[in-house]
Amino acid sequence: MDIPTIITELGGGLPAAVIVALAAAVWALWKRVNELQDKRVADGQRYSDKMHEAITALADVARASEGR
After folding, report:
1. Where are the alpha helices (DSSP H) in the chain?
2. H or E segment at 11?
3. The whole model's pTM is what?
4. Are 33 and 42 in contact, with CB atoms under 8 Å apart?
5. For residues 52 and 44, is the Cβ–Cβ distance under 8 A?
6. 12-63 confidence digits (pLDDT tens)
7. Cβ neighbour number for residue 6 with a 10 Å cutoff
């Protein structure tokens, strides 16, 4: 459906145009939030990987020092 048809289906006039504009704004914001959430999940995964590396290295050092 195109925008003029949607506005007509909503009864036309300024209220219908505002509804369509707000719906477009909500859609754009929703898309942006999803993109940011995906980036946050990726950042969390990278942080988790780095923490795993650090903990593994620390455990290796602890094991090596116990063997002295």
Report:
1. 3-9, 13-66
2. none
3. 0.62
4. no
5. no
6. 999 999 999 999 999 999 999 999 999 999 999 999 999 999 999 999 999 9
7. 14
